[in-house]
Amino acid sequence: MNNMQAGANISVNQSGSIDMLLSWMPFDFPIDVAAFVLNEAEKVRSDSDFIYLNGNIDTQADFISLSLNAGKPVFRIDFNKISSDVSKIVFAVASPNSLSGLQNLRMEIGNLSAFSPENTALQSLILGELYFKNQQWKFRALGQGYQQGLEFLATRYGTQFDRQSLNSSLPQLVNNSQSNNNAAIMDTIREELPDVRALITPDNVKAGIKSLKRFSWAWLLASLVVFIIAEIAIAGLFQTNLFWSFIPQSFRFLVEIVSFSISFLAGGMIVGLVSPSIRVLEPAIAAFFSVIILLSNGFFTPHGFADFSIIKMLIGGSIAFALAISGARLGEKIAAKFGNRTSQDYINNR
Question: Burial letters for 227-243: b for 16+ Cβ neighbours within 10 Å, e otherwise?
């Protein structure tokens, strides 16, 4: 079975049904498993389109079922029964605290492929989505993470999640699956249930969505390159104009400061616009480093403005840091205007 990378998609056979099996370690890790049946507006048609492990499985849609197979949750989708107003099914996992302790998380897409997303210190993770496009059902691996829990995902897709119903619904799910599972495994589940319930507390929904990916050194380096190119381009634009020769030497350093400030703002905006996930910290740190590089140039060239000093480094680096963050956020706003859903979530929840 092939392993998918985040962002990849595969076509699925829509003549029958497909099983989406999830597994993880450790076995007793407290986790919510959910599916959201969405229309073209990417909202559930009704609350019954929100199906989750630990939830009331009697509300499931007639074309999607949720059960346990050897203790592992399995979504079965019957393509012959899907109505025409369904355009997407999103699969997600969440934890009341953090998914950082989760290991070997894996989703099998029938016998076609499997996807193992990165686990970071997040509370919820969209594993992937089944979507209908050009008269064909496909699965796309995503691995999008959020610092909010299942309540956030439910609200995002137009429904609600009531964790208070967990205690009464969990035994029902276990009993409904008992006849199809190994008795020893089910005994283990019953023994672990009290501990799992004790760990479940209401999510503290935080204002603002953090980066969807862990800190990236690659994007920090890419941001640094962007800033250097922007500095050279913008400084060259100023200095190659005819008016440059008419500027007194004593004022040229002010023009240079303006040009460098514009380069930090523009560079941050470029990174925020082109990065596939939220990248705000990386360009800010890269801007600080670019100031250090700029001032270090004073060791080798007789340029008064670029003479290195700790004060200049701290003040200039802090200004560059703030300008790069502002530019990156501006880039995210532009990306949100163009319909980037991740950027829209970031902007709307800041």
Answer: bbebbeebbeebeeeee
What is the residue extent of each domain of the chain? 2-199, 217-348
* pLDDT tens per residue, range 213-227: 457 788 889 888 988
- Pairwise CA distance, residues 208 & 237, whole Å: 38
- The fold adopted by the segment(s) 2-199 is Lipoxygenase-1 (2.60.60)
Q: Specify whether the CB–CB gap between 189 and 174 falls below 8 A.
A: yes
Return the CA Rg of the chain.
26
Q: Provide CB contacts within 8 A for 271, sequence distance 6+.
A: 219, 222, 223, 226, 279, 282, 283, 327, 328, 331
> CA 118 to CA 296: how far, in whole Å?
38
Structure tokens at 123: 């509370």
Q: What angle do CA 70, 21, 173 make, to 5 degrees?
A: 55
Dump pLDDT digits (tens) for 267-306: 888 888 887 777 888 888 988 888 888 777 654 444 444 4
